[in-house]
Amino acid sequence: EKAVNLKKDLAEMQEWMTQAEEEYLEKDFEYKSPEELENAVEEMKRAKEDVLQKEVRVKILKDNIKMLAAKVPSSGHDLATELNVVLENYQLLCNRIRGKCHTLEEVWSCWIELLQYLDLETAWLNNLEERVQMTQNLPDKLDTVNDALESLESVLRHPADNRTQIRELGQTLIDGGILDDIISEKLEAFNARYEELSHLAVSRQIALEQQLQMMRETDHMLQVLQENLVELDRQLTSYLTDRVDAFQMPQEAQ
């Protein structure tokens, strides 16, 4: 009777594993929204816990069959053979569910990381847009234009590492068919804004550099003119002091 019960327990265990495999491993999942992906992750975590909890039952079955085999070798031999099959299938099921759970957790982590990088780069784009707007309608002052140019250039020196991460993470998820529509839409909007603002910022940078160069050249010309006027004033003062007749002076002094 004990052998019959153990045989029944082995059959039930095998049936449960078959159902678990069908439910958790053979479904074709499509993750088209973050909610679907998050739910799948939580479901697979529960599946992993459920499968691992059966380890106690498997151990009890193993111990009982060993005890029976020690007492009734003939009955125990057949059960031991069935037990080995169940043990192999159980270990395989555990490994596959662990693997799938780990994969889904990695995918979810990849999605969260992508959102974080997008937030960082969006904040940078907002800052860049603000700096570009600040370069409009500047007072015609050398220091003001120079400060605006340096401020804009400091933002433009932003490293490209985050954008590389965004591209790689997004492509990894899209290649896996995970959230591909949402990610494609997000990346398209981000890249379009990045290209537009970058082009505008570089154009403003060039314009400010040209404006600054012209202002410096003008400033230099005014400085030279001022020095010439000072020298001319000195010469005229000397002429007046020496009471030199105007017609005796050089033409430029006249």
What does this structure look like?
The protein is built from six helices and no strands. By secondary structure, the chain is mainly α. The protein has a single domain (1-210), classed as Methane Monooxygenase Hydroxylase, Chain G, domain 1. The longest helix is centred in the middle third of the chain and has 62 residues, at 73-134. 15% of the residues are buried. It comes from Caloenas nicobarica (Nicobar pigeon). This is UTRO protein. Keywords: Coiled coil.
> Per DSSP, what share of the residues sits in E-state strands of 2 or more residues?
under 5%
The computed structural class is mainly alpha
What series of H and E elements makes up the topology?
A: HHHHHH
Distance between the termini: 136 Å
Helical residue percent? over 70%
Mean pLDDT metric:
88
What Rg do the Cα atoms give? Answer: 40 Å
The overall strand count is 0
Question: Helical stretch count?
Answer: 6
CATH architecture: Up-down Bundle
Question: What's the CATH class label?
Answer: Mainly Alpha
**Poorly predicted parts:** none
In CATH, the topology is named Methane Monooxygenase Hydroxylase, Chain G, domain 1
| Tally of individual domains | 1
The best one-word shape is rod-shaped
What composes the largest sheet?
Answer: none
